[in-house]
Amino acid sequence: MNIYNIIFGQDSGQVNCCFHDDSRASAGIGPNGEYNCFACGAKAHNSTGFIMKYFQVSEKKAIEMRNKFNKTLSYQYLPITDEQRNFLHSVGLIDRVIDRFFFRSGQGKLMQRLLPNANTWWNAQGLSNHFVGHPKYKYDFTIHGGMTIPFDNMYYNHIIITEGEKDMLTLLSLGIPNVVAKIGGVQTRVLGNWNFKDKYVTIIYDCDDPGREGAIADADYLTEKFNCKVKVIDLGLNDKEDLNDYFMVYGKSIQDLQGLMAKTSIHIPQPKATKTKVQTIIDSLTADEKVEIIKLLKEENNG
């Protein structure tokens, strides 16, 4: 369904309708290519029907166009605007990184390449096409939570994992090549594979409780599953601040980060206590139920 990627920069979910002047994402793209606008009533049963309506062509011509669209992705990779580039500069990214990872969709959205056929939309407040009702990042539906990108950086012996793409791109812009981002945030676990085996891994997640908990869970997993030597870095920032803030807000340098990494000890997973079935049942009882059971046991023992 590359026609939707070409027009909207995504091929599922809510989009601005292309058949009327729409700024409220009134249309939806279904899992089988259905298109439906709840504002103007535009409909298509599949991507072929959408092409017929959008380009005003016959079904035969639409099928021919669909097949060509599905063979190429080049149409959706448009140059970013000056506004988009200036925004990326403002968050600390350099042109070399911007040109590698970013493009503009057919509807003008700022998009980041994650994989050859998977992207994410940057819905940033600093951009004119920002939509308040959408999350700041909208992932392509083919992306699995926990994936680490870019894959070509996984071949270093030392890997730095960040919680988000912006942090990863910040470090790449500062000249650190061995950094990857975990897709999906701390709600997902790292999808480990043989690329992690026996490696040194540094985890730098956001400075909030979910970030710390997620970092520990990933550190435990990588240590126990792949024999990694893992360091979990505490940046010492305020709640919800992240690695980009470390550099852009607090003016820290790469040398500051490297010093912090050097001082941090290797993570040692804590033993996990396992409950017996009896203990699990006991923990599930209310206080009144426990009192009643104790009373019955006393009566039985006295008898």
Plain-language structure description:
This protein is of the alpha+beta class and about 300 residues long. Helix content is about 35%, strand content about 15%. The protein has 11 helices and 13 strands. The protein has helices spanning about 1-10, 45-55, 60-70, 80-90, 95-100, 165-175, 210-225, 245-250, 255-265, 275-285, 285-300, and strands at about 15, 25-30, 35, 45, 100-105, 110-115, 120, 135-140, 150, 160, 180, 200-205, 230. The strands form 3 sheets. It has a 5-stranded mixed sheet, sandwiched between helices. Strands 1-2-3-4 form a 4-stranded antiparallel sheet. Helix 2 (about 45-55) packs across helix 3 (about 60-70). The longest helix has 18 residues, at about 210-225. The chain starts with a helix and ends with a helix.
Tell me roughly what share of residues is in helical segments. Answer: 25-40%
As for the CATH topology of the largest domain, it is: Dna Topoisomerase Vi A Subunit, Chain: A, domain 2
Largest sheet, strands/sense/barrel: 5 strands, mixed
Class derived from helix and strand content: alpha+beta
Count of helical segments? Answer: 11
What is the CATH first-level class name of the largest domain? Alpha Beta
Q: Please indicate the count of domains.
A: 4
Mean pLDDT: 87
Overall number of strands = 13
Radius of gyration equals 25 Å
Strand content: 15-25%
Q: How far apart are the first and last residues' alpha carbons, in Å?
A: 76 Å
The quaternary state of the protein chains shown equals: single chain
Strand order in the sheet with the most strands: 9-11-10-12-13
Shape: globular
